[in-house]
Automatic annotation (TrEMBL), chains A, B:
Domain of life where this protein originates: Bacteria
Keyword list, A-Z: DNA-binding, Transcription, Transcription regulation
InterPro entries linked to this entry: HTH_HxlR, WH-like_DNA-bd_sf, WH_DNA-bd_sf
Residue intervals of the HTH hxlR-type domain: 22-128
PANTHER family given in the database record: TRANSCRIPTIONAL REGULATOR, MARR FAMILY (PTHR33204), TRANSCRIPTIONAL REGULATORY PROTEIN (PTHR33204:SF39)
Name the UniProt record assigns to this protein: Transcriptional regulator
Region (Disordered): 1-27
Length: 141, 141
DNA sequence: CGGAATCCATGCTGATACTG
DNA sequence: CAGTATCAGCATGGATTCCG
């Protein structure tokens, strides 16, 4: 089910390391760390996902995510904008109106993320079961 | 909770939310948060990736990841084992030998992650360029 | 060698207040 | 409405130390 995407040859295979010019001191680790640093936070993925659907205003965004605070939304938005994943359009009006929209780059992120989300959804029960088994085996943890 | 309800038919589509019994207080956000909590940390993905390639011992793992500390490796391994993504095999010998291997579930994670990593690798330069542009436009930041 | 517990430093996150 | 700045609290990550 879901898009299993590629055939998944290896994980930290050489091609990945070669394709990455992360210039870190690690082979593929840098790439993973890179993507994690980018969308591994609590809200980035949510915001990009919401914006992928349609453009939204600051308040709209805050209303939809809800759990996010004013500060975090601003911070997340700025970071996303900086990475070119989200575009910010400010209208010099009164009251001020700012609309955020996902860029082409931001939309391209949706595909791979969807794959990961699909995996999580598909294997959620399996993980829960594993946790239950583990918890049962080590109750005094 | 009169949730603002779903507003992301594409990204956090209903089927995803339905498939997840994460029992959070968010609709599809929970799924993303869930997967983020699972592999969104600094090392889980790296460890699973390394193990996806082949089984490794504790020391081997620490040597390959390198940047990870003793404590973090143990913690990450335990967490991964708890989720059923990694299997732990301890040999009651002297000196003790413990081998870690990715489970079928752990290997299935490689596919979607690879997609995300591929995205990061492919759009890395685009993001860097965007950052440069942003940084250039906001020097007084 | 592998693991666990402790302690510490840092970062991230959230709440609040103030400005335009 | 949108954004920024400051403060305080919690969580994450790291180093060390002791045990099997």
């Amino acid at each position: 089910m879901t898009t299993t995407d590629a055939a998944a040859p290896r994980f930290a295979d050489h091609p990945l390391a070669s394709a990455s010019t992360c210039s870190s001191d690690e082979p593929a680790s840098g790439v993973i760390r890179d993507v994690l640093s980018r969308v591994g936070d609590k809200w980035s993925l949510l915001v990009v996902g919401l914006l992928d659907d349609r453009s939204l205003r600051f308040t709209e965004l805050q209303r939809k995510v809800d759990g996010i605070s004013h500060r975090m939304l601003t911070q997340t938005l700025r970071n996303l904008e900086r990475d070119g994943l989200v575009s910010r359009t400010a209208y010099p009006e009164i009251p001020p109106r700012v609309e955020y929209a996902a860029t082409d780059l931001g939309r391209s992120l949706a595909a791979p993320v969807l794959g990961l989300v699909g995996w999580a959804a598909a294997n959620h029960e399996a993980i829960t079961a594993a946790r239950d088994t583990y918890d049962d085996a080590a109750p005094g943890a």
